[in-house]
Design a protein that fits this description.
- This protein is of the alpha+beta class.
- It has helices at 89-107, 121-124, 145-156, 158-161, 196-218, 222-233, 240-252, and strands spanning 35-37, 46-51, 54-63, 67-71, 78-83, 113-114, 127-130, 171-173, 179-181.
- The protein has two domains: 30-130, Phosphorylase Kinase, domain 1 (2-Layer Sandwich), CATH 3.30.200; 141-252, no CATH class.
- Strand 2 (46-51) and strand 3 form a beta hairpin.
- It is globular.
């Protein structure tokens, strides 16, 4: 198989870790991909990825806390997302398991989808993912209707619908206008089945995160902020999490 042309997305790219939990980190083996700067290029952002004995040209697109993201000039609809060199093995494994949990949650979500993944991280040590370029226009309030609905669902049923880091930078618009989450991360607040004292603490954390989502998506626009809050209030009258979110929003504006 041509190493430049992998087939379609894997149906379950995290199947190899489906049985693992945080306590099983020692069982995971994460290879280190061979990615090095292309010294023959005048562009300092150009790199080489070694795959199956072949050189794949890359260009660095972004640098996060855990990963570097590269475009693939020979395959412009794909990205390579690889852990940065300073991340230790345990952090790589932890991030992988969080991504696996997030993917499972998002693939069952009725109003969005996770980005497509074309390889097994535990085999390659990096992700090859689809490149979804179009962002939502924060000034186009009508186009944000699905975002408002998704955030309202988080308040209705956070156990089922909460999405970690649901910020504009981590969300794109697919070819059919669908909401695509491009950064797979998760945080479990365990709202159900806990003692009341712990539940209140978790609700505070949830309210803080959801309030941050709303403020980022409304981008300082008063009408947009009102639309987000009205969407939530119309579906969550008297709910405790709604009250906490409303309080935090009022403190920020």
């Amino acid at each position: 198989m041509n190493p430049l042309k992998r087939t379609g997305p894997i149906e379950n790219p995290f199947e190899s870790a489906s049985h693992l939990k945080k306590v099983d980190l020692k069982k995971l083996k994460v290879p280190s991909p061979v990615i090095y700067q292309n010294w023959e290029s005048e562009n300092a952002s150009d790199y080489i990825l070694m795959r199956d004995g072949s050189e794949i040209s890359l260009t660095q697109l972004a640098h996060g806390n855990f990963h570097k993201v590269y475009t693939m000039p020979e395959q412009p609809d794909r990205l390579i997302k690889a852990p940065i060199g300073s991340i230790n093995d345990n952090d790589k494994k932890g991030a992988f398991l969080e991504s696996a949990r997030a993917y499972k949650k998002l693939e069952d979500h009725p109003d969005l989808r996770p980005c497509q993944i074309f390889n097994d991280f535990l085999t390659d040590g990096y992700y090859e993912v689809e490149y979804v370029k179009e962002s939502f226009d924060l000034k186009d309030l009508e186009s944000l209707a699905p975002i408002r609905h998704i955030i309202a669902e988080m308040v209705v049923d956070p156990d089922q619908y909460f999405i970690h880091d649901f910020f504009p930078r981590n969300v794109r618009k697919g070819e059919e206008g669908e909401v695509v989450v491009i950064d797979l991360a998760d945080r479990d607040y365990k709202i159900g089945g806990v003692e009341e004292e712990e539940k209140n603490l978790n609700l505070e954390d949830l309210a803080e995160d959801i309030s941050k989502f709303i403020l980022k998506w409304s981008d300082g626009d008063k009408e947009s902020l009102e639309r987000f809050m009205n969407e939530i209030k119309n579906r969550n009258q008297g709910q405790e999490l709604l009250e906490k979110v409303s309080k935090r929003i009022s403190e920020e504006i």
